Amino acid sequence: WLLIAVLIRAIQLPALTWILTAVIRGPVAQNDPTGVWYGALAFASLAISTQLVMHYRQRLALELGEAVVSDLRNQLFTHMQRMPMRWFHTNRIGRVISRMTSDMEDIRIGVQEVFYVTLVQFIQMGIAAAAMIWYDWSLFLIVLGLAPIIWLINRHFHQRLSDALRNMRESFSRVTATLVESVVGIRVTQGFVRQQENARVFRDLATDHSRYNTRVLKTQGTFLPLLEMNSQIFLAILLFVGGYRVLTPGHSIQIGDLVGFFFMANLFFSPISILGNQYNQAMTAMAGAERLYRLLDTEPEWTDRADATDLSDVEGRVDFEKVSLEYESGRPVLRDISFSAKPGSVIALVGHTGSGKSSIINLVARFYLPTSGTVRLDGVDIRQVRGHSLHRHMGIVQQQNFLFSGT
């Protein structure tokens, strides 16, 4: 239904221009008041119908955009739940939030507006071009001279605008990430008296983002006026050539045909600036989609094995056999740790901050896999157990680093 509304809308706009031209060439030129009234009535009826079609085109496009964004948000959230704990420790929170907010909104605009508005404008330009050929094909050859100029302008600005938008979105992610981490870690910031240093870092990032944003606006501010200026220049050339042919004896073109040609020429050139705006929005949406799908295409470092099984009853015996763990390659946190925790016993892990207490809990819960060695639960290697089944039998109080296992 949305595509049908788009097609009808694209036909209605040239039809309005055609009715106006027909009334001028016919009843007005022939002094026919009745024909003028009928023409005005037809024009008014079609104008009302265009507003009705426009309402449903926008409504259906907005509903589609919301449905797409809703699906993408759910898909992104579900994908993040599959990522191992290492991914959350190595990716800044603000970057993830920016994917859910600004990048999603850019994609929403791309879905709701860019494709359908562009389709309407292109069909409108095609119908206007056919009408101009029908009125005077030789004048239309002048219009065709605009095509290579527009192509060259688009080619010149495409890469510049794409790079500028990509850099702007990346800088915005850095600003968002820094803001989120500053709010979440405000105790650490104030505890170590880093307020001034954090403010300086944020100020530099904000300035950097402003510079990228200014570059985007300058590029857009050059691109759109160039398109508009070329359209006006070609209209001036058409006016000169068309007027000369009408006023020169021996030419077959009539004043009514020239009026109709110029009405259609305006209809042909008017979408150019609109398409320029849609081009900018398309580049923005593509930059957001590129970042979003890069995240969606990131596969977890590890998942459940194909032969993994479910845990049925758990007694609670935990065995570490020469377990080593590295968060970063070449920097071991645990080295050859071996111990057994029997069911019903209480094990206290005591040590300085950073000595590996939480790391042992993370290994038992399989938030991380050991670099070497084996962690067993009731004699079963936790690599052979499905994560969902394992976690159903566990409870963790993170604040005190206690582990309670059992049925």
Report, as a whole number of angstroms, the end-to-end distance.
55 Å
What can be said about the biggest beta sheet? 4 strands, antiparallel
Cα-atom Rg, whole angstroms? Answer: 33 Å
- What is the H/E string? HHHHHHHHHEEHEEHEE
Helix content: over 70%
Shape: elongated
**Mean model confidence by pLDDT:** 81
Please mark out the parts with pLDDT under 50 across 5 or more consecutive residues, or reply none: 400-407
Please tally the β strands and state the result: 6
Task: List the SSEs and their pairings.
Blueprint: H1 2-28, H2 33-82, H3 85-90, H4 93-135, H5 137-144, H6 146-184, H7 186-191, H8 195-247, H9 255-296, E1 318-328, E2 331-341, H10 357-364, E3 372-377, E4 380-381, H11 387-391, E5 394-397, E6 402-405
Antiparallel strand pairs: 1-2, 1-3, 3-4, 5-6
Helix pairs in contact: 1-2, 1-4, 1-9, 2-4, 4-5, 4-6, 4-9, 6-8, 6-9, 8-9
Structure description:
It is a single chain. The chain is 71% helix and 9% strand. The chain is built from 11 helices and 6 strands. Helix 2 runs antiparallel to helix 4 and helix 6 packs antiparallel against helix 8.
Descriptive terms for the model:
407 residues; alpha+beta; two-stranded antiparallel ribbon; 6 strands; elongated; disordered C terminus
